[in-house]
Amino acid sequence: MGWSLFDSLALEVRTERPRKIPNTRQRMAHFHVMAKPTGPICNLDCEYCFYLEQEQSYPQDHSFQISEDKLERYIQNYIASQSGDEINFAWQGGEPTLLGVKFFEKVIALQKRYAQGKTISNSIQTNGTLLNDRWGKFLKEHHFLVGLSLDGTRELHDRYRVDKKAKPSFDRVMKGLAILRKYQIEFNLLCVVHRHNAQHPEQVYSFFKGIGAHFIQFIPLVDQVNGQVADWSVRPQDYGNFLIRIFDQWIRTDIGKVFVQIFDVSLGNWMGLGSSLCLFAETCGRAIALEHDGKVYSCDHYVTPHHQIGDIEQHSFLEMLTSEQQIQFGQAKQTSLPQYCRKCEVKFACQGECPRNRFATTPEGEPGLNYLCEGYRAFFNYIDPYMQVMAALLKAGRPAADLMSMVTPTGFNPLLLQSQRR
Which residue range or ranges hold the Radical SAM core domain (predicted)? Predict the structure, then answer.
């Protein structure tokens, strides 16, 4: 999922326009729903996908397509529950393009019916393998933002992203990308950083720039099998190094040209704006998941009976989001932090990241440390001086890209900032 699907801060930083203040007369602050109209059904069989196994939780004859009644109820409920005048629908899976263009034509019709004068936009996360000219025309006509999953060059991508016959998917993804470019459809790249491609940060980043990517999201792969870290999971130190080495290139040549989600979100934290991305926010609970059967869960990573907070046929989103269960879920992110994290110098930037990854122990033996702590701590400490300068530039009314002229082979020269103020 590209961050523009969720994160307004990245857009605000790059356009340097003020944050829009929600209408306080409305009942609910902004929230986000990740809708999965196909459930876990996908035409690929990526080795690392945690979601495909959900298919086994349903009967063999189960239909993995949201019904028309549930779809209409979702669209009506979501629009009515949002506080703002601009509403984004995010469609994910599984693979949502399996439903075909006709399904999304129904989506557009229903959104128009219930829009109530609000501006509606759509985003879709896809593996890109099913995109064709018909999809291209539809996505362009209705201004869809597309998140395209791509893990790097052919060898890096095909390491884990294969189809049901274990055949590679890279060429098909690139054909999908060609459709997006042909129809000039705005897209983000979502790259899962796994144990293999984490060893090649410059190669991954250069490849993405070479194919015309301007918005990139890096998602660290962390998975457990039988209580042990899976072989494909990225190592904490490798992930930190991956981000640092890409950041080094970005600050020299690409500020204002290429937008990397974690860099933009970090800048917001250094500016004191807080994180609009749940990973690095103090609390969570505003990004919920809708399954194809109408059930709603606290988070995409917690689709379990214990974390079901309602059903769209019986509850409004307002009821589910303000339920005691969901409030406690969101607050637990902060209250469960180990003391080791509370004293950390980069807590303001990390906030312990996602609770699902907090299965390590601190040096003192306290449970609840994020598995990726070593990598994040190295990365956030490394970028600190650069972020301070970019934050100062923006607060002074100057573009963050001015930092590039201050960077030297060994870092940056803050005296250049002082001299340019005169």
Answer: 25-252
